[in-house]
Amino acid sequence: MGDRDLTPEGFVRDAIARADGRMAMLAAVASLDLPDAWIAAGAVRNAVWDALHGYAAFTPLADVDVIWFDPARADQAVDRALENHLTAILPALPWSVKNQARMHERNGDPPYQGSLDAMRFWPETATALGARLSKDGTIEIAAPFGLDDLLGLVLRPSPRFSSKMALFHHRVVEKQWTRVWPRLRLRDGAR
Questions:
Q1: What is the pTM of this model?
Q2: Which residues of the chain carry a pLDDT beneath 70?
Q3: What is the pLDDT of residue 1?
């Protein structure tokens, strides 16, 4: 057996690789050859939280968020076509494709400079997370707020959401994260 990567990124890569269907999801998205494309948010985060909780079965996904960035193709119809293509590859999955070049308008933010910049505007630090397959087949991780909260089972608002605490708490209750992953610790403020 080869050497295991015991770094935080190594743990996240391993959790993704072991999670049911995640490698197929990553391969499907990689086949689209989109610029700055990632499987993001819950599809990645949940795999890690499931691993940290020692779950034998993985929690179901509400959707599979795919983000990418291309200002020249920011029409919502392009995203729908990409969702249809991904559904043809893996029909059992609830794909949600969003070109981050247009999402700032919906969210009332300044224009994003790329997918990682867009993640900085997401509600929770542990949700601002993405994974993709590199050309050599390894899993790349994007985490603009780092991996400490994710791996420490800390649920905290991102800096952009620290002034939107009512919305943050609503999301925690609505999504029932602390019921699904009971070892999560809620933190209201910045690190």
A1: 0.93
A2: 1-3, 189-191
A3: 47
Whose structure tokens read 């995203």? Answer: 79
- For domain 8-154, the question of CATH label 3.30.2010 is answered with no
Q: What are phi and psi of 132, to 5 degrees?
A: -155, 165
Measure Cα distances from 88 to 85, 112, 131, 137 in Å.
5, 30, 21, 22
Please write the tens of the pLDDT for every residue from 145-171: 999 999 999 999 999 888 888 888 899
CA separation (Å) from 169 to 78, 121, 175, 186, 187?
Answer: 33, 16, 10, 9, 10
Query: Domain segments of the chain: what residues?
Result: 8-154
The answer to whether 141 and 12 have CB atoms below 8 angstroms apart is: yes
Task: Give the long-range contacts of residues 163-172, CB within 8 A, separation 24 or more.
Answer: 164/123, 167/123, 168/123, 168/124, 171/123, 171/124
